[in-house]
């Protein structure tokens, strides 16, 4: 993705908008205002995305429809529209593409990731007119692997990570050997290798030069070593429902640890041992976190950013960038916030592959 700075939100007209183009006859009684069917159709684009068109609405005399009837029909059709949206979301070809975050020295971070974590520098681009640089690193090609996108903004050498972001997860064959290498390279080990609290998986924690934590998980060979992004949420059940319905993810596993007062849910598009997943963590009694300004967003591929945006709206999500092409590169995207305010960008699958070319 070329930008991680939030873009202006374009406003879509609604029935109550003074700029909607609706003409109301002053001589008609209040409960018999008439709207042309074509105007009503243009005011409900999200319904059209999922098979509910104006032609299915109740008609009045002369092929026109009353405002009161439209409200009744819109309310009655909500369940049908949501059902169609959910069906489409589940069929959509989605994959976690990359995670975006800001760093204070991109060359220093590249050196650490390649030498200590075994990543490869996949591509790097400098945008001097916008005063930022991007670097993409990972364990395989971007068209088939989840990768990190580092962003360096000219002149900014530090950021606030906040309390909401947790860590990234990397699967390794030999955790002790990996930790020893990181120590030899001068890296910071925040937790020595050992079983996870309340479980048996052997883990360790290290920090990169900017303070981002990485959880190392000892497991067998996997096609997706960069395997997790952990974010803290204030209501786990609410988040699970949203990620399932709006993002089309599956609840892969859920584990409660009452002794340590936290619950985690693994959400993703495929098995944890073969795909990158979201690890959503709820700490008992904590409903809000500081987001800081370091972590930016997750990018997810989709076959249709317009339908994706409509489905997110139907699920109560907040769209922060209406769907459409990015200036200059024409890659179609849409951006939204989850119930906790974590940002996600959806990218058109075909446009993404063209961008890689």
Main pleated sheet: 8 strands, mixed
Number of discrete helical segments? 8
> Whole-number average pLDDT?
84
Strand content: 25-35%
Shape category: globular
Q: By helix and strand content, what is the structural category?
A: alpha+beta
Roughly how much helix do the residues carry, as a percent range? 10-25%
Give me the count of strands: 18
Structure description:
With 357 residues, this protein is of the alpha+beta class. It is built from 8 helices and 18 strands. Strands 4-5-6-3-15-18-17-16 form an 8-stranded mixed beta sheet. The longest helix has 25 residues, at 67-91. The radius of gyration is 23 Å and the shape is globular. Pfam families: Glyoxalase (PF00903). Residues 95-219, 225-349 form the VOC domain. Keywords: Lyase, Metal-binding, Repeat, Zinc. It is an enzyme of class 4 (lyase). Its EC number is 4.4.1.5.
Topology:
Elements: E1 34-36, H1 37-42, H2 45-49, E2 64-66, H3 67-91, E3 95-102, H4 106-116, E4 120-127, E5 132-138, E6 147-153, E7 165-172, H5 175-184, E8 188-195, E9 202-207, E10 213-218, E11 226-232, H6 236-245, E12 250-257, E13 262-268, E14 277-283, E15 295-302, H7 305-314, E16 318-325, E17 332-337, E18 343-348, H8 349-356
Parallel strand pairs: 3-6, 7-10, 11-14, 15-18
Antiparallel strand pairs: 1-2, 3-15, 4-5, 5-6, 7-11, 8-9, 9-10, 12-13, 13-14, 16-17, 17-18
């Amino acid at each position: 993705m070329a930008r991680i700075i939030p873009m202006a939100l374009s406003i879509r007209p609604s029935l109550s908008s003074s700029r909607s183009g609706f003409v109301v006859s002053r001589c008609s009684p209040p409960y018999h205002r008439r709207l042309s069917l074509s105007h009503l159709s243009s005011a409900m684009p999200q319904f059209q995305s999922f098979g509910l068109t104006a032609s299915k609405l109740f008609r009045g005399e002369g092929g026109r429809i009353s405002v009161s009837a439209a409200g009744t029909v819109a309310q009655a059709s909500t369940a049908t529209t949501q059902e169609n949206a959910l069906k489409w979301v589940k069929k959509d070809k989605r994959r976690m593409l990359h995670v975006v975050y800001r760093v204070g020295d991109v060359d220093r971070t590249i050196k650490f990731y390649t030498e200590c974590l075994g990543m490869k520098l996949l591509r790097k681009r400098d945008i001097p007119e916008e005063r930022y640089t991007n670097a993409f690193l990972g364990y395989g090609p971007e068209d088939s692997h989840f990768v990190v996108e580092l962003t360096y903004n000219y002149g900014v050498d530090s950021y606030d990570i906040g309390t909401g972001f947790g860590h990234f997860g990397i699967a390794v064959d030999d955790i002790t050997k990996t930790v020893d290498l990181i120590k030899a390279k001068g890296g910071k080990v925040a937790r020595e290798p050992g079983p996870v609290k309340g479980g048996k998986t052997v883990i360790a924690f290290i920090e990169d030069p900017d303070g981002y934590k990485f959880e190392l998980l000892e497991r067998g060979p996997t096609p997706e070593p960069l395997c997790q992004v952990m974010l803290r949420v204030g209501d786990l059940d609410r988040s699970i429902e949203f990620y399932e319905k709006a993002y089309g993810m599956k609840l892969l596993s859920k584990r409660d640890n009452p002794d340590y007062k936290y619950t985690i849910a693994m959400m993703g598009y495929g098995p944890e041992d073969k795909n990158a997943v979201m690890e959503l963590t709820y700490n008992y009694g904590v409903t809000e976190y500081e987001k800081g300004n370091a972590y930016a967003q997750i990018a997810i591929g989709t076959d249709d950013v317009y339908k994706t945006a409509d489905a997110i709206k139907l699920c109560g999500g907040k769209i922060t960038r209406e769907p459409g092409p990015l200036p200059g590169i024409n890659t179609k995207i849409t951006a939204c916030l989850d119930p906790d305010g974590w940002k996600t960008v959806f990218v058109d699958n075909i446009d993404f592959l063209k961008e890689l070319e």
